């Protein structure tokens, strides 16, 4: 099977690289093209890029193993995500799109500096960049894991190959390169994951046989978690994605609010379909791979290789790789844009032309892509990296964003206090390892209390006019 897998992977890599480089170079002539696609994305493109970007390694490979371990208790993460997706659909998304068009916003930091001030922008950008470098790292890990399983190429070489491909087309073409490949990857993601369900369930003896062999606790909402852990799961993803820059980037890039809301609604439906599909795959794995002792990251690739026919298995491995690459290029791009635009550029005193900005962003994208590899020395568990990243951003930035669009009174002092308090609460419970309470809960609570108290006792008059304009 390795020979067929190699042929399919080579074809997929070649096609992805060609599409990314060709369309990226063709459509990217300005820095705005590179960062927000000139705010011109239509409905179909926006749907595909959101699906390919947001459904990544943790959503498929990570969730497969976690549904196998935790049963429907894993759905608490999805409940939190679904709530926040509705908030994006009805509240945040239209406002972010308006802000981008009126004020030229391209990053989360652009909104923070406009709404609050420079210090809060820097703090938010550092936290998001750190979280997204970790998220980029586990996409690298997932790509290399799949390629190693599929072809037998040693992990180190698989990691180098997949990383180089993503870095090349992302750094050359920016968002247009990413979105061009996302059309292919989004379609492959949805079809590939859905097709796997009947194949694996059939191999496992049918859906009745699978559910018969599941432990009773797997079918109970709180079977493998406590109510506090369920709440933490909801907050981790629910609050974490409020500040995620790849979602904001798509909000900025949509050509209109109606297009944005329609595409996001379709994405929400598709993501639920994929989550159900992954759940059934995870349940089937308990029958098909009950004694699997490898890395949790490798459970789904191992199932494909062992139980699916050669050609079908090779195509589905390519589809699984498409799932990961669709996120890897996006998170690498937004990480680099944040570093260049929000952290590096403010330190440069010399004014630069748009062409110079574009060149610098491309260079930083390539450098960031290589530097991300260092994160894998600290952790190789995809879900662990993802939870940590979502925890940090959720505990520190969700409150200033959610309330900042609607409430004029809080200023930069309230935001700084909120970020510091949220990070402190999260760190104390993370380092202390208090098993009775997950860090996201005290972190988010401290962030909210600090924001409300400081806003009430020390309202910031300096940005009053800007605050009114920002509440669009």
Helix-strand blueprint:
Layout: H1 2-27, H2 31-36, H3 43-54, H4 57-70, H5 75-103, H6 108-115, H7 118-151, H8 155-203, H9 207-212, H10 227-240, H11 245-253, H12 257-288, H13 299-307, H14 310-344, H15 354-371, H16 382-404, H17 412-432, H18 440-457, H19 464-470
Helix pairs in contact: 1-8, 1-14, 3-8, 3-11, 3-12, 3-14, 4-12, 5-10, 5-11, 5-12, 6-7, 7-8, 7-14, 7-16, 7-17, 8-12, 8-14, 8-15, 10-16, 12-13, 13-14, 14-15, 16-17, 16-18, 17-18
Question: At the fourth CATH level, what is the homologous superfamily?
Answer: Sodium/glucose cotransporter
Distance between the termini: 56 Å
Strand content: under 5%
- How many helices? The count is 19
Structural class: mainly alpha
H/E order of the elements?
Answer: HHHHHHHHHHHHHHHHHHH
What is the number of domains? Answer: 1
Keywords:
19 helices, 78% helix, mainly alpha, single chain, globular, disordered C terminus, Sodium/glucose cotransporter, 472 residues
Characterization of this structure:
- With 472 residues, the protein is an all-alpha fold.
- The chain has a single domain (2-384), classed as Sodium/glucose cotransporter (Up-down Bundle), CATH 1.20.1730.10.
- The protein is 78% helix and 0% strand.
- The protein is built from 19 helices and no strands.
- It is globular and about 65 Å long.
- The termini are far apart.
